[in-house]
């Protein structure tokens, strides 16, 4: 059974209640760029001479001005999660959200997060292995002190280490089915007795 949850979604959706209200009202959470964020088009794919641009009359250029923006992506309580300032500066926002929402989900379930220390609790994180944030750091001359601070592959281990968990710990990437694959893996681990409790997370964020 799912006993707790937490969210970070476009449209200032930060908990189950606001998510349900958005669904019930049919609210469109896609909007124009906000003033404190990048005002350029979210995605531009310029035509390439290597492509047949007349093939099936499909244009090879797409420009999207509207987007689903997550509120305040730069805010993070680094000290709470035992991150040094230099580490926090390089920490992928997806790592930050997973740390925050995992804690919130445990609180939502009524489980004190610190009570999980030394338990057989599994961690299953669905995250795509793209390098947008790493490229952004390089563009600004920032070199992470440790590669895992900006690498998607390290997030499951970070969660297990932070909570002092001893169950299976996997970062999963299966393209569009990544989140569902993480959930499936968690369910199977529970069924086979690999862990007594599972923390499951899925995250996708486009940096622009």
The CATH homologous superfamily of the domain at 71-203 corresponds to Thiolase/Chalcone synthase
For the largest beta-sheet, the strand count, sense and barrel status come to:
3 strands, parallel
Shape: globular
Question: Low-confidence parts lasting 5 or more residues at pLDDT below 50?
Answer: 39-61
Written overview of the protein:
There is one protein chain. The protein has about 210 residues and is of the alpha/beta class. The protein has a domain at about 70-205: Peroxisomal Thiolase, Chain A, domain 1. Helix content is about 30%, strand content about 10%. The chain has helices at about 15-25, 85-90, 95-110, 130-140, 155-165, 180-190; strands at about 120-125, 170, 195-205. Residues about 40-60 have low confidence and may be disordered.
What's the SSE blueprint?
Layout: H1 16-25, H2 85-90, H3 93-109, E1 121-127, H4 132-139, H5 155-163, E2 169-172, H6 178-191, E3 197-203
Parallel strand pairs: 1-2, 1-3
Briefly, what is this?
By secondary structure, the chain is α/β, with parallel strands linked by helices. Helix content is 31%, strand content 9%. It has helices at 16-25, 85-90, 93-109, 132-139, 155-163, 178-191; strands spanning 121-127, 169-172, 197-203.
């Amino acid at each position: 059974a799912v006993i707790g949850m937490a969210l970070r979604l476009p449209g200032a959706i930060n908990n189950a209640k606001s998510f349900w209200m958005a669904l019930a009202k049919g609210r469109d959470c896609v909007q124009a760029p906000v003033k404190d964020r990048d005002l350029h088009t979210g995605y531009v794919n310029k035509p390439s001479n290597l492509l047949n641009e007349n093939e099936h009359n499909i244009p090879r250029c797409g420009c999207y001005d509207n987007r689903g923006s997550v509120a305040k992506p730069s805010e993070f309580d680094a000290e709470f999660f035992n991150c040094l300032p230099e580490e926090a500066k390089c920490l992928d926002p997806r790592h930050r959200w997973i740390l925050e929402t995992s804690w919130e989900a445990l609180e939502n379930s009524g489980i004190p997060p610190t009570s999980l220390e030394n338990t057989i609790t599994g961690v299953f994180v669905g995250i795509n292995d793209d390098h947008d944030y790493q490229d952004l750091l390089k563009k600004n001359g920032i070199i992470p002190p440790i590669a895992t601070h900006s690498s998607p592959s390290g997030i499951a281990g970070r969660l297990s280490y932070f909570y002092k968990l001893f169950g299976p710990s996997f970062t999963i990437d299966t393209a569009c089915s990544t989140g569902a694959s993480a959930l499936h893996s968690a369910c199977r681990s529970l069924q086979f007795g690999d862990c007594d409790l599972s923390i499951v997370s899925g995250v996708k964020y486009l940096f622009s």
